[in-house]
Amino acid sequence: MSAAPDNLAAALRRRYGAGARVENVAIPTLGGSNRTIVFDLVEGASRRRLVSREETYRAANSPFLSPPDQFRLMRFVFAQGFPVPEPVFEYDAGDATAPGYVCAYVEGETMPKAILHAPALAQVRPTLAARCGELLAMLHGMPRAEAAFLDGRPDSVDAVAAQRERYDSYGGGRPAIELGLRWLARNKPQAAPPVLVHGDFRVGNIMVAPQGVTAVLDWECAHIGSAWEDLGWLCTRAWRFDRPDLTAGGLDTAAPLFAAYERVSGTRVDEEAVRYWTVFGLVRWAILNLMQVSGHLSGERRGLVFAACGRNVSLIEYDLLMTLKGRYA
Amino acid sequence: MKELPDIADMLAEVRAFLARLGPDLDKGAKFEAQVAVYLLDIAQRELAAPSAAQADTAQLCGDIRAGRRDGQWDETLDAELDAAAARVRIVRPDHLKGAQL
Fold first, then answer.
1. Which candidate, A40, A58, A178, A236, has a CA 20 to 30 Å from the CA of A160?
2. Which chain B residue shows the shortest CA-CA distance from A250?
């Protein structure tokens, strides 16, 4: 157990009164550019487990939604009945914290290895691919007007161009990624109706308990785009972990995922377009790793993991080229 | 006169130290120690590999983007796949078997 940071305790007293206390503080270690603190908010006899998320690092060319936009989006999808941790409040100028928000704590497993293999989840595992299809169909069916604040994001305007611009800003100069971007430019599928896209929907960002998916996390890549982009990202080879043969996120074949999506959305899955977005997924994943190493090399945010990301780009490029050659599906 | 131990020996010794230390560390530090070992493994393999000439990729990248390689698409793909495989052999040789990130 750790002590509650003073700025968190102060932020809570501002909202819940001088008697509000923070107990049972836990600080998960893998933060990336966010600091996460799990704690109990105690008011008199009532106690509520909450999570604080603060953005500790933001690059000028960050691909991520600002914390206020994340909070706004989570409030919208929560109100629509989507499984997302209940947003509680956002930090403001009166707080000494970094930009961020507090939301409800949700029980469940997020580690991919456990979701794919833990005996405790053996019962629910065969249902997960279909559940992912249902959830994505639900999300894509939400009224877009409420998410209009995402319309101006580069990813909403042109997802491929947004990646190309970021890649250039991280230094460019990688022929394999250029080949991927060129392939994407020459093989664009027919435009699909724009929907609210989660943008990082994959094993690792869905919280799973024995009774099913308890929450969908990490909304910082949300934008407006093609429904097939979300399905393609879930099916991207890098997100199949140790089961590259199981297209649907290492959970199952694509069949139950697509069938559930079609049942709930009433829309036929464009499998060719999903495959296009899996290529996009590899290009995007390579560029996200370039982003991590670029922060390391510039000295803005150094670290062992970010250094490893730089060398891992070659692994993703290899998968991308094998896919473009038709040797990987 | 060759100064000893050489770079490979020093890397090996630091790697062994980190690998030994790992199990005693708490969860976060244990993960970082694993990543440190991973980076030293890469450094050792790169040191042992014959040094490849660093290709100047700017021209090639510009050509691909402008479509000037569209006519030699397969040849370009094959050459880059070979180059990527060579890099994978340094970073994580097992990945060539289809292993995942």
1. A58
2. B100
Facing A311 at nearest CB: one of B42, B61, B96: B42
Q: Which of A305, A315, A324 sits opposite B88 (nearest CB)?
A: A315
Is 0.90 surpassed by the pTM of this model? yes
CA distance A219 to A216: 8
Cα B43 from Cα B18, distance rounded (Å): 15
Instruction: Say if the Cβ atoms of B36 and A304 lie within 8 Å.
Output: yes
**Distance from CA of residue A190 to its chain's centroid?**
25
Could you tell me where the DSSP H helices lie in chain A?
6-16, 67-79, 112-117, 128-140, 154-157, 159-169, 175-186, 227-235, 254-265, 271-298, 304-324
pLDDT in tens, B38-70: 999 999 999 998 776 677 899 999 999 999 999
- Each residue's pLDDT tens digit, B10-46: 999 999 999 999 899 988 899 999 999 999 999 999 9
3-class DSSP state of B100 = coil
Q: Do A316 and B67 touch (CB under 8 A)?
A: no
In 3D space, the residue among A209, A238, A205 whose CA is nearest the CA of residue A220 turns out to be A205
How far apart are the C-alpha atoms of A285 and A275, rounded to whole Å?
Answer: 15
For residue B61, give the nearest of A29, A173, A311 by CB distance.
A173
Under 8 Å between Cβ of A306 and A63: no
Contact B35 A305 (CB under 8 A): yes
Which residue out of A283, A306, A314, A317 would a mutagenesis test of the B interface target, given it has the greatest number of B Cβ atoms within 10 Å?
A: A314
DSSP states of A106-173 as a string? ---B--HHHHHH-GGGTTTGGGHHHHHHHHHHHHHTS-GGGGGGGTTSHHHH-HHHHHHHHHHHTT--
